Queue: 2 jobs
Job 1
Amino acid sequence: MSDIKIKITDRDGVLHEVDAPTDMNMNLMEVVRSYELAPEGTIGICGGMAMCASCQCYIKSDHSLPEKSDDEEAMLAEAFFVEDNSRLGCQIHMTDALDGLEVELAPEEA
Ligand code: FES
């Protein structure tokens, strides 16, 4: 069992510091869901396939993240509220390198 600490600011601007396991093959969207930091049905709509952007978040810390896949790039090109530091949470897998990551959930589309 190994955990990393992540700071997540929810859509109401409330900061949550949570432990995320690195040994369960979880992604950031699943971590947000597991702590219920966004209402059911507003995040992870496509199930983590990089096809909905409901898991968009802004990366606030300067961790170096894996490059975006073509699917992630394409989805972010169509999404709302996209900033330079936008990523799809479902494409960010929890690894030891992300200890201390700080993210903010993007506003809900729709
Ligand atoms: S959950 Fe749909 S793009 Fe991430």
Job 2
Amino acid sequence: MEPKFVHKPVMAAEVAQALQLKGNGVYADGTIGGGGHGAVILAGSSPNGWLYGCDRDGAAVEAARERLNREFAGRFELRRANFAELREWVPEGSCDGVLLDLGVSSAQLDWPERGFSFQAEGPLDMRMDTRQTLTAAQLVNEADGEELARIFWEYGGERESRRFARAIVKDRESRRFETTKQLADLIERLSPRQGRKAHPATKVFQAVRIAVNDEMGSLKRGLEGGMELLKPGGRLAVITFHSLEDRVVKDFGRTRARDYNVKGDVDVPELREPRRPELKLITRKAAQPSEMEMKENPRSRSAQLRVMEKV
Ligand SMILES: C[S@@+](CC[C@H](N)C(=O)[O-])C[C@H]1O[C@@H](n2cnc3c(N)ncnc32)[C@H](O)[C@@H]1O
């Protein structure tokens, strides 16, 4: 059954402050999800603020539309789209703030048919956009061992990446991987829990999800596009949930905050070419949820918020 898209927005107060919400501001939320942050943005920009919102997940867009219509009808436009393509429909230089709250929503995780979770049996799917053809099952059944090992290591930091990949390749000689449980059980057999809190398949599931949805590619394009939507002085706020994403956001901010260009791959101070920085870092160090929020919403634990301002 389809769960209700009631996603508790993570670091809502911090996001509202970061975006400096104002009464007639224009904002874009590239990960509208259940509309949690969307509602915060529209409430904080009442009475005339405007929100462009999108999500790759059609069910999320519908849920957000329904929720936001109850209170903020006529003040937003929502589309089912990848945030990497925001600049194709949101006017350049029109926004006072852009938000990306990455990863999956609680609704997606709690919906076994979507195949994101190893906690419940479901098809090995993991597509955020169900119109996409590549599924987790296709990747796990068809990628060669080297590719699987690379994905587990690069996107999951899984130390046993090679061993797990070899075992999958061997196992699939006799049967296809069709369900989340098949994959989770195989990993658990290879690496028994032995008192560990996290499920042994946590990293593999994260890695497969990132690969299936090309999350790193979208993030890089989304950051670049997001900056183009902003007016000078506008803010880009990004919430990440693992170090790989956070590093991409941190590097993006640092490179664009520099007042010089680097020639070639190595930064040689004598060869720097002065230029105007494109942005200012508002958070030098990523902000994290308060202790209270982490206690109330354990899924917020790994959240990190970075904020930058277009100059
Ligand atoms: C953590 S949830 C967002 C929750 C939302 N901020 C709220 O308060 O309800 C992440 C959402 O981002 C969406 N998403 C992830 N990558 C995306 C992308 N590249 N483009 C559009 N949506 C994406 C997912 O489908 C998911 O609904």
